[in-house]
Amino acid sequence: MLSPKAEKLINDYFNLPFEGLSGIRCPYFNNTRRRARGQLRGLIGKGTPEEIVEEAKIISTQYRHNIFDKDGFCCIHAAHSDEEKNDDVRKFLIDNDLGIDCSGFISQALIAHYKETKNINIAKNFYFWPLKNFWRRLVARLRPVENMSVSVIAKDENSLKIADGRETYDWSKLQPADLIFMMETGPNKKRNHILIIEDNEGSIIKYAHSRAWSSDGKYGHGVARGVIRITKLAGNMLDQTWEEQGKTNDENETYREASEAKIFEVRRIKI
After folding, report:
1. Of 81, 171, 207, 221, which shows the fewest CB atoms inside 10 Å?
2. Is 215 helix (H, G, I), strand (E, B) or coil?
3. Is 78 exposed, middle or buried (0-12, 13-18, 19+ CB in 10 A)?
């Protein structure tokens, strides 16, 4: 398993810590299209669960959305069921661009894991692009999580390639905090995606990520968990059975993105 603090962090994304509410799954949000710079990481898809919750409360009170009161408590009509309240809050988060992207989710989990297990802040040791501009280098050092994109995490300076997903490998050797990369995938081959391994029981690899499937629609996306069942010991990772959200292999969009990726590999953070 990942470290206890990393697991708690991940669980908090699956159950955002709103006062008096339970079971609100953090949506997916990618800031790339909006290209907002210099904002708090809770507003650009890089925040912790607590930061996302805090921004939701501020936006609600500042713009009178009547979702939370000035003390941060949910003020949706009491006649609404818990499920209806959760749906309303998730829609509010999505409509206001509050959520976590795939690299933000993984970066936060990795930082928590290695701080607890190795007493190392990996964000301080990360190598970013060879930025010639002094201010861009300074920003990358001062705001590392905001700059830890999938492509940055995948750099050889930051992570070591463990296995090619299309080649035979002893998948029981993968460890918690290992990362599954899918580079240049999706319909236009411009999407990079990343999963974190939470646990490996030998025959079952458990992973987590933040994603938006095409079938999710406007409000169905967010953090998700899945498993890879090792059913062919001599096979590659795509020969195995991928299960997520009740979908298996070709019906599982995460599996399809892996199979369509130009680069599909497992890497481990260098420490």
Report:
1. 81
2. helix
3. exposed
Query: CB of 59 within 8 A of CB of 74?
Result: no
- Residue 235: how many other CB atoms lie within 10 Å: 14
Label residue 115 by pLDDT band (50, 70, 90).
Answer: very high
Query: What gap in Å lies between CA 13 and CA 243, rounded to an integer?
Result: 20
Return the exposure string of 133-170: e unless at least 16 CB atoms fall within 10 Å of the residue's CB, then b. eeeeeebbeeebbbbbbbebbbeeebbeebbebbeebe
Exposure string for 55-65, b = 16+ CB within 10 A, e = fewer: bbbebbbeeee
Ramachandran quadrant class, 167 (left: phi over 0; alpha: psi -120 to 50; beta: rest): beta
- Helix/strand/coil for 175: coil
Nearest to 121 by CA among 144, 103, 105, 140: 144
Say which residue, 200 or 19, is predicted with more confidence.
200
pLDDT value for 113? 98
The contacts of residue 55 (CB under 8 Å, 6+ apart) are 40, 42, 43, 47, 98
Q: What is the reported pLDDT for 137?
A: 61
User: What six digits make up the tokens of 113?
Assistant: 């894991």
221-265 residue pLDDT tens = 999 999 999 999 999 999 999 999 999 999 999 999 999 999 999
